[in-house]
Amino acid sequence: MLFSKLLLPTLKEAPQEAEIISHKLMLRAGMIRKVASGIYTWLPLGLRVLRKVENIVRNEMNNSGAQEVLMPMVQPKELWNETNRWEKMGKELLRIQDRHERDFCLGPTHEEVITDLIRNTLKSYKELPINTYQIQTKFRDEIRPRYGVMRSREFLMKDAYSFGVDQESLDKSYIDMRNAYKEILNNIGLDFKIVKADSGAIGGDASEEFHILAENGEDTIAVSSKSEFAINTELLLKNDENISSLEGKESPDGKGTIQIKKGIEVGHIFKLGKVYSESMGANVQTHEGRSSTLHMGCYGIGVSRIVAASIEQNNDEKGIIWPSAIAPFEVNIIAIGYEKNDLIERAANDLYKELSEQGYDVLLDDRKAGFGAKMKDSELIGIPMNIIIGNKYLEDGSVEMRTRDGQESLINIDDLEVVFNYFKKD
């Protein structure tokens, strides 16, 4: 992609409405633009990151054996009445009517729709267990949308739903999803904790949240200094306690002491049991020939929220520092004097072609701008590696390699193997 052709409206300063780092940087880096309160357009740079997160999520879900489906965003009232959630969800559920005055809602989640599908499709225990997932737009009418895509009304989410004949099957599906979520966040390259949590409006017997650790996290979590134990402080505090009563207390698992961290919830997994399947009559015939209510699990991960949370965890005073797995471009070729010198233009074009053919996402900064302006933009949008072609190339054929984290070196442009080794894929 040529920088001069890329729709990338960067800003020197973020609008006053932007309160947290990720919102400020996503606006300044030209990733998103506001359409209405809590509703955003994703521009090309932001969409590239969003799609990379989505692909990592999809790959791990497929590896777990889950099957992808796509359910409608618009859902009929009748299904929600079966679970009594039409009224229970309150004003977060955006209710609409069609031209025939039939009631629908914009889906904030899809338990009712998937349970309806399964009860009308599967009849025998032989067809189970099964786990289906989708990557779909959700809408929750937040009373106070804020923090950009971190707490927006419209967002992209992966939600999965498992069905089995007994508790043992549910337990296995739950562990499979737990492991898949760990792989997703590890593959992206994020520091996270798995936190014991309240099941909230979704319901069920047990649930855990996946929190990306960040200073601006909305949630306060208690973690052990010597184990993986972590819990939302709301579940740990007694009536007469506050968070400070926890900063070196013994961990509830007996390993180490409690440390207080800030986290951003990006995923939540639930053992729903029979909460939805019983009220909606989702049954199958067992091998003994009797009818049995299905055991259900629900597993959600915020795809768009991961983008913002990644920025909250990885940034500096210059801008975004993307984990390489989700960077919008892996390489930025900064050509100084591209429009003035044929040798620099040819070298930049040739290198761009070579790296692109090797399968890398490459940006070529061909703009009529100085080195300082080009470098500032590259640092703002967080490209992991810059290859600078300028006067040194004209002198002795060398180019500068400069990483987003500040490492620098000179190599000869003809030694392409050295260039490729910087970006060698696993």
Stretches with pLDDT under 50, minimum 5 residues: none
Major sheet size, sense and barrel closure: 9 strands, mixed
The overall pLDDT average reads 92
Number of strands: 23
Shape: elongated
**Roughly how many Å apart are the termini?**
24 Å
What percent of the residues sit in helical stretches (DSSP H or I)? Answer: 25-40%
- The radius of gyration computed from the alpha-carbon positions, rounded to a whole number of angstroms, is 25 Å
Beta fraction: 25-35%
Count of helical stretches: 13
The helix-and-strand class reads alpha+beta
In short:
The protein is an alpha+beta fold. It contains 13 helices and 23 strands.
Descriptive account of the structure:
The protein has helices at 21-28, 44-63, 77-82, 85-88, 111-121, 167-188, 233-236, 275-279, 303-313, 342-357, 371-381, 391-396, 416-422; strands at residues 32-36, 39-42, 67-68, 74-76, 95-97, 103-106, 130-139, 154-164, 192-196, 206-213, 219-224, 230-232, 258-273, 283-285, 291-293, 295-302, 315-316, 319-320, 331-335, 362-365, 385-389, 398-403, 408-412. The strands form six sheets. Strands 3, 7, 8, 9, 10, 11, 12, 13 and 16 form a nine-stranded mixed sheet that branches. The protein has a five-stranded mixed sheet with strand order 20-19-21-22-23, with helices on both faces. Strand 17 (315-316) and strand 18 form a beta hairpin. The model has no long low-confidence stretch (mean pLDDT 92). The chain has 426 residues and is α+β, with helices and mostly antiparallel strands. The protein contains 13 helices and 23 strands. Helix 1 (21-28) packs across helix 9, helix 2 (44-63) runs antiparallel to helix 6 (167-188) and helix 2 (44-63) crosses helix 9 (303-313).
